[in-house]
Every structure is written in structure tokens, then in C-alpha cells.
Amino acid sequence: xxxxxxxxxxxxxxxxxxxxxxxxxxxxxxxxxxxxxxxxxxxxxxxxxxxxxxxxxxxxxxxxxxxxxxxxxxxxxxxxxxxxxxxxxxxxxxxxxxxxxxxxxxxxxxxxxxxxxxxxxxxxxx
Length: 126
Description:
Radius of gyration: 28 Å
Order of helices and strands: HHHH
Strand content: under 5%
Distance between the termini: 101 Å
Number of helices: 4
């Protein structure tokens, strides 16, 4: 069955691609292309179900719906992985922002305390 030789590398690729950093332009372009291809493939499957069955026959799957299920499972695995990476990156950004705010507030409080205590003069000893 050809489907086994197609699904295993596709599964590995979905996991690897989903766990990459999200900030690069290449990654953003890849997500947009993937989304577009998913929409096109879904529309073709709905409009031409016999074409999906023919593709299933070519790769050794008994029904076209099973082939669609395999594709949706791969898309779901990619989505779960990429969502977890995105949450991790946002959490890191929030931590850095909170640290910056805490440092800024500490500096402001320190400056305020210095201003309230007045200028420091050195006392003379009698």
C-alpha cells in the first residue's frame, strides 16, 4: 500500500514543520500556503467526490472518506503543534514585557524616592 509510504513522512513533516519558530516570514508564508491548499482540497473533495475516490484507489485506501480522514488527521497534528509553539512564544514575550515593566516601575520609584529626600549635602563635623 502506497499510503503507508506517504503517511509516515507526511506525519513527520507535519510535526517538524509545526514545531518550528513562528516569527519568520518563511513560516508565515508556509502557513498561508497550507491554509489555501487545505481550502482548495476541501472544495475539490466536495465538488468532485469521485476524484477523491480515484485518488484513494491510487494510494491503496479503500474509501475516499478514509483518505480525507487521514489528511484531516495530519492537518490536526500540524495545528496542535503549531498552536503550542505559538503559545510558548507568546508566553515568552509576556514574561519579557512583565520584566521590562517591573524594571521601569522600580526605576521610577527609586527616582521618586531620591527626589523626595532632597539633595544630599555632606555634613561638617564640629
